[in-house]
Amino acid sequence: MKLSLCISPVVLTLSLLAPLARADVSLSPIIGPHMVLQRDSTCPIWGWAEAGEEVSVEFAGQKVKGKTGEDGKWMVKLAPMKATAAGANMTITGKNTIALDDVVVGEVWLCSGQSNMEFTVGQVNNAKEEIAAATDGMIRHLKVNNPGSGKPMDKVQSGGWQNASPQTVGGFAAAGYFFAREVRKELGVPIGLLGANWGGTRIEPWTPPVGFKEVPALKDIADKLDEFPKGKNNNRVDIQSPLALFNGRIAPLVPYAIRGALWYQGESNNGEGMLYFEKMKALVIGWRKVWEMPDMPFYFVELAPYNYGGSGDALAMIWEAQAAAATNIPNTGMSGTTDIGNVKDIHPRNKQEVGRRLALLALTKTYGKSVGEISGPVKKDVKFDGAKAVVTFDHAAGLKTRDGQPPTHFMLAGEDKNFIAAKAEISGETVVVTADGVTKPVALRFGFNQSAEPNLANGAGLPARPFRTDDYPAR
After folding, report:
1. Alpha-carbon gap, residue 427 to 429, rounded angstroms
2. What is the CATH class of 109-366?
């Protein structure tokens, strides 16, 4: 049988003209109704249109114009604005017009990491009550759903910006939401959250190429960046490969104006010890460079105690790496959690307190507010005096235990390097430690085990940070 193909002159004419048809102005999906723009910052607005097309953006008394490049992309920048909770319209005009309603100006934070950041309000303690109470529409959230990608993506896959309400908040990143609730109480401005997180992921996929290049300890990755991200047998990108989630979930957000980043991750890098500190440096440096914000605030959550199995040292060494990051990377801070975890649940449900403690860091260090203590006691010095070890702390005002009992989870070792459970007592703002049979201690550990939930705190009720004075290898 022969098939004859008949094409009408009209169809042929339309097909020939199709490449010349007008390309309507479109927006990056992060630019949408209900969005929060970062106050006191230049705010990029961008999208796509026909090459050479002039596009104008009108908002809050500003009208800025730009022209589409040969690649079809355009971008304009709104001048810095003061915060406003009065929703206003934004109009984008080229050969067509797009109107966005209920746009506000406030503070915007990126919420990234693995499952404890992905953990939603609907999963926390007292979730029913928290959801019912979520009536502040000036807290807004955008969830990024992009897959891992072999190259930087330019469009966010998302359901758009959502105002907090009992109908929506159950799906918000809980640590971010409770952070936003506390910051909003103090500042009184709208808070926007960009939820770019993925359960079970390592830190490497979130890190941009420039971050790896800036950290000499990661030269093994930096030298073969052209090999990443790697794929799987089904040709999908391996989301655990370096660059995969930076390409998929972070790159599409850049250069949206933000104030800073919140990070809750590390479980999937457990066992790496101080190498994790180097990887945190790469992440922070990398994000600061791609956003062109050399001092971008970066606040993160100390992993909570959890029984992973094994000797128990591995998680403690991640704590050590996190503490090093908080101490040595400028404009960062760590929210302690050793008192609000669950050693039987890797996803502790008290995200209200996690968010509150992150907010204390931001309110003090970023916004210059006086909100009280922002950290639990941090080891300042340990002196060995005969059979005693005397520990002094920073952030130690009102040193106490939460339960009124003697301080727990101190261990002393003599020259045999054998750690013995020790007795400890508070003396002013110091702790004096002794152990039966250890007459000449040379090393002290505090809370240095994955299942340790020590009771030492300061007057603000914030937990003391685990530490060790030795450098013995993991057992």
Report:
1. 6
2. alpha beta
